[in-house]
Amino acid sequence: MTDLIDRADVERVLRDPRFTVPEASAEARRPMGRLRSGASRFANGSTHERRRAHLVDLLGLLDARRLEADAAARTRALVAGTPRARLDVPGIARTVPVACLAGQLGFAEPDEAPRLVAEAAEAYANGTESDAADEAVLRLLATAPRRAGGDADGVGHDNDAELRVQLLVQAYAATAALVEGAMRRVATGAATATTAELLEATLRDDPPVRLTRRVDPDGAVVVLRFDGADRDSGRGRPPRTLAFGAGSRACPARATAVAIAGAIVEEVRAC
Ligand code: HEM
Q1: Which whole number is the average pLDDT over 28-52?
Q2: Which residues form a coiled coil (predicted)?
Q3: Has domain 2-270 been given CATH number 3.20.20.70?
């Protein structure tokens, strides 16, 4: 396995269509395996494009102002009465984004979603099998919105419920890590920075997702790091930010993630 570290090399590979993602097995029968094999994240070619287009439509349904307001209100409720030094920032970061997204994506029990997604996230990322992850996926699918005869809100896809669950799982660890990284910067001296500056610096210097993988044209797996040096930086030119990836598979939810994380960080800093 090759590791690419310099951000210039990593970006080149991310933008090169000859490099594909390792695919989920189409033979999977267990619930998590089926979720992975139905996701955009582990598919290539036209299947990826079709699923990604649907995810982009779903993200287009989200109202950023309402998400921010919901994230702020949920954070205020969780911090209420707790001294700053005893705040459970990781707990807030792992709960609020998924609950807000589940609410706007029409899940029947948004407050339950963070616990279920937490059960599912690791197995989704690395393909391991676990009964707890399977149960969580089944519960999430059961609470996803469905209408007889098709999609829930006018954006049709045969895989609609699974792709809504994919959005929650993709959001979970990465958005939490952004909130935690930004709060670490506050604790270690960046107390006067604006929240937007904190998020920008965290994304550049302490990326929430550290790496991804691609398969090269010869079939070898390549590890692509988002946190390495950038040989094109220097002399007033900061390293490029690759936190959301690049190219045709870049995170489609950058604005959503930054809006939610920003609202949470603002509330935690105000407490
Ligand atoms: C700070 C928070 C986030 C970070 C750093 C992040 C990062 C990433 C990265 C690096 C990728 C591309 C992986 C690759 O190329 O192999 C990705 C893909 C993806 N992200 Fe995010 N993400 C974040 C939040 C979110 C949120 C909030 C959502 C959903 C609401 C989301 C949905 C997705 C989806 C669906 C994909 C797969 C896209 C595809 O298959 O083409 N992400 N994300």
Answers
A1: 97
A2: none
A3: no
